[in-house]
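Sample entry (124 residues):
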Amino acid sequence: MKKVPCMIIRGGTSKGVYFLKDDLPADIAERDKFLMAIMESGDQTQINGLGGATSVTSKVAIVSKSEKEGVDLDYLFAQVGIGQKVVDTAPSCGNILSGIICFASEKGLIELQITRRYHKCRSK
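Predicted structure, serialized as C-alpha cells:
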C-alpha cells in the first residue's frame, strides 16, 4: 500500500483534504478512484474515510506550482460524493480555495513574505 500525504484544513465554512498534485495518480480515472476510496464516497456515513458525510466536509483540493507566468499556484477543487461514487471537478469552492496558501506554504511550494500594519483604535 502506497502512503499519500495530505493535510486536512478548514477553509471558511468547509473542511477539505488537501493533496499535492504530484502525489496523486496522473490518470484522471485513477485519481478519482483514489479520491473516492480515501473519502469513502460509496458510504452515506463515510465513517471509515476522510469525508465527513456532509457536502461541506467531503471536499478535496489538489495543489501544484503553476507553470503559468505570473501565477504561483494551480488549484483544482473536487466535490466527492456522499453515498454515491462520484467526483465532480466542475464547481469551484471559495472556502477550500482559502486554505491553499496555508497548504502551499507548509508544503514548501511558496514562500510567505507578508508585512501587516495596524492601528489600535482610541490610541494616539
